[in-house]
Specification:
By secondary structure, this protein is α/β, with parallel strands linked by helices. It has two domains: 223 residues, 3-Layer(aba) Sandwich (Rossmann fold), CATH 3.40.50; 176 residues, 3-Layer(aba) Sandwich (Rossmann fold), CATH 3.40.50.2000. It is built from 16 helices and 14 strands. The strands form two sheets. It has an eight-stranded mixed beta sheet, with helices on both faces. Helix 2 runs parallel beside helix 3. The radius of gyration is 22 Å and the shape is globular. It starts with a strand and ends with a strand. The C terminus is likely disordered.
Length: 412
């Protein structure tokens, strides 16, 4: 079976949706599907057996793409649409698997070429637009709402990445074949870093004798770094030995935050590592005393949370829907989104060894049970077999059962 996957993302870059796209591709390759990935001209070539990357022509003045809506992204999406038309004209595909706003033009492409499509919903695009600088234009938000509803009513199958998105989608169209496929922790199959490697990193960062509080991820405004640093100012008053280690961020973002930290007098308590290769992140997670996710807005579960959970370290996170979909009081310390509450939570975890061990162990066990490769493949396999227009050309089920049955966390 040949699938055209359309990802309006820089593939591959080590950040949210591109990592999710990577996991989908990995899963389809494991299931034996042949996939043509159509994506932006930006990103590193990462392939799997049976997969080919097709990029749009280079746009000379666009060398990077920021997270969220932008004029640059609109231009890239228009070029992506033109190339999608060309590929569908030249090739025979059994299905399209489209991510994010690619669903907007997949509705038209599906009718033009008679190819069914699966919509991979990573976020509520209308809300994402409303939360951006374009939110001051209500007409644009309304257009996105209408388009998103049309996608949910015309797609042949739907994948969501979390319970809240699932509820939103089902409220619009509860008849669509649907499966919830949560992201996997990143690099769960990689060997844990050697203790000597972790200790060397600790020494290089000057963390010997200090308590590292680690954050990994992007530095976008919704991640709540302003909340984290406001709470850090309170934490260091009670625990001068603490050090906040931040892994990620673009160079310009890191420079801006370094300047801000210096103004607050926190430069001796904050280390900016910058972006590192995904595999290197494991060593930073391993040396962490506590892992933090201070996100303040959004519905989608941060990808970092799955990896945090698998790491088996205590987690403190804001008590918002993006976190509470997978975390609860047994697997993390969830606190209100205020600097006082976040600071108190960090200090509480620092002082309570038993609680740290309990939360870390529980989070790890939940990650192993719920977010594992076998469950992931079963759900991905199910959606391709559940849609009659696709199932006729689908790769036979590879799991140990005579027929693909509906897995848990699946709605119709």
């Amino acid at each position: 079976m040949k699938v055209l996957m359309i990802a309006p993302q820089p593939y591959f870059e080590p950040r949210g949706t591109p990592i999710s796209v990577y996991q989908r591709l990995h899963g389809l390759a494991a299931l034996g599907y042949e996939v043509d990935l159509l994506t932006y001209h930006i990103g590193k070539d990462v392939t799997f057996p049976g997969m080919q990357i097709h990029r749009i022509p280079p746009i000379p003045f666009i060398h990077a793409i920021k997270i969220g809506p932008s004029y640059a992204k609109l231009l890239l999406d228009l070029v992506l649409l033109l190339k999608a038309i060309l590929m569908l004209w030249r090739n025979r595909y059994h299905a399209m698997h489209v991510h994010e706003e690619a669903g907007f033009f997949a509705m038209v492409l599906s009718r033009l070429f008679g190819v069914p499509y699966i919509y991979d919903m990573h976020s509520c695009l209308a809300q994402q637009l409303a939360n951006s600088r374009y939110g001051r234009y209500p007409i644009l938000v309304k257009i996105f709402e209408v388009l998103e509803r049309r996608v949910l009513h015309t797609c042949d199958g739907l994948i969501t990445i979390g319970a809240d998105l699932e509820e939103r989608a089902m409220a619009i169209n509860n008849m669509v074949k649907h499966v919830r496929v949560e992201n996997l922790p990143v690099h769960v199959t990689d060997p844990a870093p050697a203790p000597a490697t972790v200790e060397q990193l600790r020494a290089e960062l000057g963390l010997i004798g200090r308590t590292p509080i680690v954050y990994t991820g992007t530095f976008e405004p919704y991640q709540g770094l302003d909340l984290l640093f406001a709470s850090a100012a309170l934490v260091v008053q009670q625990a001068p030995h603490v050090c906040f280690v931040l892994v990620g961020g673009r160079l310009d973002q890191v420079a801006d935050w370094k300047a801000e930290i210096a103004k607050q007098g926190l430069q001796d308590h904050v280390i900016f590592v910058g972006a590192v290769a995904p595999a290197e992140t494991l060593a930073y997670l391993e040396l962490a005393h506590i892992l933090v996710s201070p996100r303040t807005t959004g519905l989608s579960v941060p990808l970092k949370v799955y990896t945090y959970m698998y790491a088996g370290k205590p987690i403190i996170a804001t008590d918002i829907i993006a976190h509470s979909q997978v975390l609860d009081g047994t697997s993390a310390l969830l606190v209100p989104s205020t600097k006082e509450a976040f600071a108190d939570g960090i200090v509480k975890l620092m002082d309570d060894t038993t609680l740290r061990k309990q939360l870390g162990a529980c989070a790890h066990e939940v990650a192993k049970q719920r977010f594992n490769s076998e469950s992931y493949l079963l759900k991905l396999e199910w959606i391709y077999h559940a849609i009659p227009a696709i199932a006729s050309g689908a790769v036979p089920a590879v799991h140990a059962r005579p027929a693909v049955t509906k897995p848990k966390a699946v709605s119709e």
